Recover the amino acids of this structure.
């Protein structure tokens, strides 16, 4: 077995957590409602955000636009309590199974994925939030 | 309203599909089992992969490592039939709700997310596939 295939086997089949950050130091994180299975949001974590998430049990991400750590809900109070962290085969993506404290989207929608493609247009799949 | 906030409102609340590719020309795509809600895999699409997915109804992605378009299942036959495409608030991530034709992971697992973090280690959450 070559060193490289050994590395792949270890990463895919082993029990060591070896998160693979990309060239920008980020890993993709999908927040999924632990109760309903709905995908709530997709964001990125750097090592700092991952460590903060594991330490506090609340989802933290790295904002690419603001260039800093942020806790989801730090302003709105709509934190995401992490029940489980799933890791994919090549360890470059995470699924956070969470219990949301409120609407996950900053627009007030329960999930950021409140629209679906219908032909060439978008249509709402979630009722609009009460203003 | 400034031009910028107008753009944001249009992107977040409008019915125009305006996918926002990143500086590498990519958008994050999460494949979710339409029947079970399980997150199957996370990958990236460029405009070509998105167009191929919409045209064929089968999930296509852009491989960053191979630098080319690929259809999920092109080798294994385990294609992902796309039932719905959900779009997030700022249109930089997609959820493909799919019907998988077989195990979604190249390892043979039903989903790429077959392990969870337990303390400092990973533990399998899906039974190992039959060899």
């Amino acid at each position: 077995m070559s060193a490289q295939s050994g590395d792949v086997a270890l990463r895919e089949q082993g029990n060591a957590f070896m998160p693979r950050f990309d060239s920008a130091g980020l890993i993709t994180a999908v927040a999924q409602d632990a109760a309903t299975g709905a995908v709530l949001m997709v964001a990125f974590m750097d090592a700092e955000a991952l460590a903060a998430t594991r330490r506090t049990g609340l989802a933290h991400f790295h904002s690419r636009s603001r260039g800093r750590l942020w806790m989801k809900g730090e302003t709105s109070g709509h934190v995401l309590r992490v029940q489980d962290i799933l890791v994919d085969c090549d360890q470059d993506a995470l699924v956070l199974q969470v219990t949301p404290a409120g609407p996950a989207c900053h627009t007030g929608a329960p999930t950021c994925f409140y629209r679906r493609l219908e032909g060439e247009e978008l249509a709402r799949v979630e009722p609009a939030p009460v203003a």
